[in-house]
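[Meeting: bench + compute handoff]

Bench side (C.D.) handed over the final construct sequence. Compute side (W.E.) agreed to return the predicted structure before the next meeting so the bench team could plan truncations. Sequence as handed over:
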Amino acid sequence: LDSEAVRVQQEEIDRLKGRKNLTLLLDGWEDLLKRSLYGSVAVEVNQHPVVLSLEDMTGNRGNADNLVLVTQKAMTKMEIGDGKNIIAVTTDNPTVMQAYRRKLQALFPWILISSYFMYATFACFLHSLNTLIGEIVAYLLMKKVIAKTTRIVAFFMSSHYWGGQLNDEAKLQGIKQRLKQNCESRFYALILHCLSVLSHKNALFQVCLRPGAQQKTNNESPVAFDVIETILHDRFYWKRLEQLVKTTKSLVDAIGNVESRRASLADCMLELIRCAKHMSQLQLDPTDDDVGFWQHTKAVFNRRFHTTNTDYHSLALFLHPMCRKLAISQAASGRSVEHMVKIALGISMHWNWKQSKAVALISDIRTYNLGRAPFAGGQADGLVWWENLPVSAEAHPLKAFTITILSIVPHAGEVERLFSALGSTQSPRRCNLSVDTFETLRKVRANLNYHLHLKKTATGQQTQCQHAHMHTRDEPGINLALAKDLEDNFT
């Protein structure tokens, strides 16, 4: 293991040195030994991630100053301590992480000297949507609905007999999925929890209508009384559950659409506009739906939309060649071209660009907005289009500027996958691994996955991470059909 760890360490260091548009991810996790572990990962759009370190913070305050020290240690270990290859930092968004991002940015005042240096920090887009869902379902009536849903799932998953009967009935009805438990540490798990019960509605009815389900027969246990009451007799439960799923499904889909390695800030903004369209067209059924929850959802979404829809997200969407018109429409909160110029100038000042270069940038943006040469045309993969654009970055600074903006990774999905992989390594029979060994195992595994990724790429195989609700598309780049639909029907 030691010799393999040395090989992996040197290979990953060499790989990082050749990458100039890295995004730094940081998050915390508690393992089976109740240790407070903080993982840091360097990522780039369309590239395989590099694990920087896993640090044990047990016995230390998880404040912003300590997290900055953890980050510096991780960067130094991988020989990127100067931060020259890092363009952004993405974390979830509690107060301590907001302070951490500010302190990390303030720690490197010299980063303003180059366009490849870190200029901004971002709240994870996936965490932002998850927080939005959490605020929506905090409505008192829906909290009761979720409690009943959890009770139904808990009963059937804990009962060998009735759980097996439900699975058999579900198979007869062509239901392929099973009931899902809620897991607070996973994105959108609560809504998938509710969706699984809703999909089993008919199967649950059939099982609960059986003679042995409602009363004890031959001394055999029936289905719990409160579960029977909810499934068979509480008609408002099913109506409210349907309203909850109908309301939040677009947000769940948005998370599934952008948690891949291909996602950029432009993809996130496009999904946010799609959710806005869904919410604006959400119809209220006065006979079945709860009016208070409908109003609560609208208010929460409208408030969160404007905090999630940052200037950087809007600018990224505008700089995608297939979305330049959509980005300055009312659907995207109506930011004008002049506002986009103002945002870009602010970033160029942060990068300490010369006045002549900033003036050229303004000229490029206005030419680009009109769709004139050399910025005419476009393709779904905006980053590739800009990289292959047959102009020099010196003559047209918008090229280098946009490549940097579209290279920012907008979510912390990779660090969450790191913790998921660590959780599968650790088990009750193998839980005394030291943090150093834990880190080494994960780095070796990540490196092997990287080589497997290269092999699959060379043979034309699927390389994207996939799971039950991750909507990975075969074609790289932005969803052109969605972009056109929003531009034609929502702007």
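W.E. noted at the follow-up: The CA atoms of residues 456 and 462 lie 7 Å apart. C.D. will use this when planning the next construct.
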